[in-house]
Design goal:
Helix content is 50%, strand content 8%. By secondary structure, the protein is an alpha/beta fold. It folds into three domains: 183 residues, Ribonuclease H-like superfamily/Ribonuclease H (Nucleotidyltransferase, domain 5, 2-Layer Sandwich), CATH 3.30.420; 86 residues, DNA polymerase, domain 1 (Orthogonal Bundle); 69 residues, DNA polymerase, domain 1, CATH 1.10.150.
Length: 378
Amino acid sequence: MSEMLPPPVWVNTTQSLKQMVDDLSAQPRVAVDTESNSLHAFREQVCLLQFSSLTNDYLVDPLALKDLSLLAPIFANPKIEKVFHAAEYDLICLRRDFGFSFANLFDTMQAARVLGYPAVGLDRLLGEKFDIKMDKRHQKANWAARPLSSEQIHYARLDTHYLFNLRDVLEQELREKERLEFALEDFYRACVADEQRQRHVSASWERFAGRKDLSLRELTVLSYLCKWRDREAEKLNRPPYKVVMDDVFVALAKNPPEQKVDLSAAGLSEKQIKLWGDQILSAIRHGSEAPLVERKQAERKNDAVLRRLEKLKAWRKSVGLEMKVESDIILPKPYLGALSENPPKSLEELRDLMKDTPSRVDKFGLQILKTLGVKHAN
């Protein structure tokens, strides 16, 4: 498939947004993607939204349009199918930045995973199915920068332009393999994810807490270094790793220097030492004298739960190998934990516990019960 594409419609005014919404609201399906700036900012944000209808490709600039609430009814409308590729991250970003709710989506990456494709990137699938070449160099671009280059604009529009074609091909393959219901249930569960759940945000130093090679004193020094780095990164609006890399902090914590001249041995550049040497040394001194941090102990599951968990993992891996799919396609992770902690005693209880994926219960229910040791599960 090769064609000359007309320029996409750039949407950066309220009037052009309304015109786009009028078009999309009348469509049976809409292709969607987003671009964010996670590699270039302290707090990432959606910097571009791409939409395709049957006749137009649109690029929406949320940095110019402060109110995108006109899009909310489209995302929430069950009569309009939203086609994504790798929807999970896009949904997280769209919920976080704009508070959107979702109904009726089709995720071409998840569809490919349910089918057992070994490579499910959009570039690989479009290349295989339609001989479309995508330049993935722009994947890590700074999408908050304006103006966007012509190459970025072309790359962004390709993320949605061919999604309808890909969706239709994958749906047909899902039907042929009798796996369409698996995929549709996965799409539904992505839509109804608990949008009100507030995930616990750990302090940045806690990412190091599981390392056995770090003492509590070294972790305490790391905690003060991370606190300083977070403040500096926020002030500069850049990701923390672009201030000082993690491995440098580990080296500083293990062998705390006392003078600026010693900082380079840990991997700090001359520029970093000149800019922040005194502040880094101050953080190290505070961490060396402060009360020790505590490692959070992971909740220990009882032996019966762990045995059930391992049996379920082994079972789903075996079935996944037979069907040539990854094991979570057989039994998604949320059910793995729920079944091991609250094992059902009957098929009826299993149906209730897995009510959002009845097709998996129909296909694997008796096997799951047998794996859990339920008698008469046959």
